[in-house]
Amino acid sequence: MDLSFYLNYYLYFLISEFQGAPFVIKVTVILVSVLLIIFLFSLTQIFLLNFGHHRRDKAREDFISAYWEKVEQVVTSPTFYDEVEFEEFMGLNHGLYKRNKKPIFTETLIDILKKNKLKGVAINQPNLMLVLDHFQLPAYWQKVVLRGSIRQRKQALRYMDELGHLLSGAILLKSVHHKNKDFRKQSRAAMIQYDQHDPFKFLEESFDTDFNALDEIRLHHYFVHKAKTSELPLFTRWVKNAKSDEFKIFIIKEIGLLKQVDCARFLTERLTKESNVFVKKQIIETLGVLRYAEADNKLIAMYSTAQTILQKAIIETLSQLKTPNTLEFLAKTYGGSHDSSMKIQLAYALSTYGDEAKNYMQTLSMNMNDFDRKVFDQVYFKHEQPIAN
Q1: CA torsion sign, 33 to 35 to 37 to 40?
Q2: pTM of the entire structure?
């Protein structure tokens, strides 16, 4: 009798034993079997992940050992290398040029660039392109961003942006209408920096179907980089045409961050036309960031009828504008306010005027109650003698 006979015998024996066992035993056997399968699967996954990490670490170490110093010397050198001189300097190691190692090369190259930028070392861009071509990275990542999986395409777009040389409007144009929303937004944001024909096209459409905090980070990143190489257009038309309040709030905030002072008058006029309270709040805050003193009278006029959230924003902005009108208004408002939290904010706002506000403080001190005195002692006179009774 051969081995197959014994295997069949014990298989049928176990099946018959299982079928004749009590229900509790059957359930226990099934659960143990399932858990055993899960355990073996997890063990295999851990082994494969560990093996993959080990291979990646080994490839990174090999690359660092062979090329880190050479690449760093080339990209930070003030001297421009010609192609022949560069190839002789770098040498050739076919074992390090495999396709599956290019992401590791890219990550290491990005680390070299980041390290030197943090130290304030200028990167020689023509030499950097020689390095990229030497490791055949442009062709590799351009192919991935067009034909890879969604995860690979997102990674490729991020790496190409960090390297700064591999993206173009033509490459991105094939991704700006992709069905994957996150990748589509990533591509649309990158168009701002890399498209030479119509970089702000998608801002006319409020960027995308919805707008979130990650979109804000992406767009601000590309606005800042775009501003370094060319003059940004005024953002007023996107405030006017925005279909989403979230996008409108973001654009108004960017006007302040990018110091587009020429938009201040438009924002002041827009204040009474907006119905959304959060849009109004952002306009008020941006006027303060821009130090647009001409808005003081309008803000003062709307204070008494504004909602609490807008009143607090107005107080903060007026303390930044620091015109003669704002100081007088803040002092009078403090004297007529009965809201404790509002009084605290007003006191802090008045304290920013320094010695200029002392006359108003002395007048207010004549009618102070215990709460007012505590507020002033804490906020304005904390380094001086408390106001006398």
Answers
A1: negative
A2: 0.77
